[in-house]
Amino acid sequence: MGLKLDKIRKNQSQFLSLTGFSPDEFDELALEFRIEWDQYSSHFTLEGKPRQRIALPRKTNVLPGYQDKLLFILVYLKTFPLQELQAATFSMTQPQANFWIHLLSPILRKTLKRLKELPERNNQKLELLLQDCPDVLLDGVERNIQRPLDSEQQQGCYSGKKNA
């Protein structure tokens, strides 16, 4: 049976927890994702080979619609489960889950890039983007650093808190 879009869509908090989007935001992204998916599938087969004939929808496909494909990759990227769990959640085998993850990730990335929604990693580009923004929220991650050997340098890195 697997995870079905119309079933989880009814519970907005569950939908947000699984995808990171509200149902309305998901619909907006799905329309953009469909453009990239249609472009990919019109030029390439699922295996990535150049297409020789028109793509026809298959009834036996485990992810029949573009919304199902988007739901699959968003749930994976939001929760990062083992591929076995992702496969069980969407009623497929682990090799199928691996295949779809690797196929859909670049398509979602192209969609987000076209929408200018990808995170910026270049400090200079980020400064250019932020010039027009009065308010900015940043999400950061703490990273461990190597403790310096010099006692004076150690004091600069010491927060004053004891490890539990």
Give short descriptive properties of this protein.
164 residues; mainly alpha; 55% helix; elongated
Q: State the helix count.
A: 8
Number of strands: 0
Strand content: under 5%
Order of helices and strands: HHHHHHHH
Shape: elongated
Multimerization status:
single chain
Q: Average pLDDT value?
A: 86
Low-confidence stretches: none
Helix share bin: 40-55%
Whole-number radius of gyration?
21 Å
Give an account of the 3D structure.
It is a single chain. This protein has eight helices and no strands. The protein is mostly helical. It has a domain of 110 residues. Helix 3 crosses helix 6, helix 4 packs across helix 6 and helix 5 crosses helix 6. The longest helix is centred in the first third of the chain and has 21 residues. The radius of gyration is 21 Å and the shape is elongated.
Summarize the structure.
This protein has 8 helices and no strands. It has helices at residues 5-8, 12-19, 23-43, 66-79, 83-89, 94-114, 123-130, 151-157.
List the helices and strands and how they pair.
Layout (H helix, E strand, L loop, with lengths): L4 H4 L3 H8 L3 H21 L22 H14 L3 H7 L4 H21 L8 H8 L20 H7 L7
